[in-house]
Amino acid sequence: MNAKLWICVIFGVFVAHICVLVIVDQIRKPHTPPPKMVEPNFSTSTTTFSAPDGKVLKMEQEFTVETQFVPPEVLAKLPPPPAGAVPAPAN
Fold it and tell me: Which residues contact residue 37 at a Cβ distance below 8 angstroms, ignoring those fewer than 6 apart?
């Protein structure tokens, strides 16, 4: 047998072993359920301004994002910030 045939056989055996190891790893891996879908925290609105002849003059798209970083009950438990860290509100 020549060297090219030996290389093909060795490479084929190597690839077969890698395939078996990948399949066994997929079987042994713990399957976690997919994450729950989160409700979107944004809304959109579109306002279109038209001329009397029906031609669109202007289209405004507005995106509103509502973000709450910390729930209020957790925020109530936190200590107040240091006196010098937050500037006093201007009245």
Answer: none
Type of residue numbered 72: P
The model's pTM is: 0.36
E-assigned strand segments in the chain = 42-50, 56-65
Question: What average pLDDT does this structure show over 35-60?
Answer: 84
Coarse DSSP helix, strand, coil percentages of the chain, rounded to the nearest 5 percent? 35, 20, 45
Residue 2 carries which side chain, given as an amino acid letter? N
Which residues fall within 8 angstroms of residue 48, CB to CB, at 6 or more apart? 56, 58, 59, 60
Extents of the domains making up the chain: 40-70
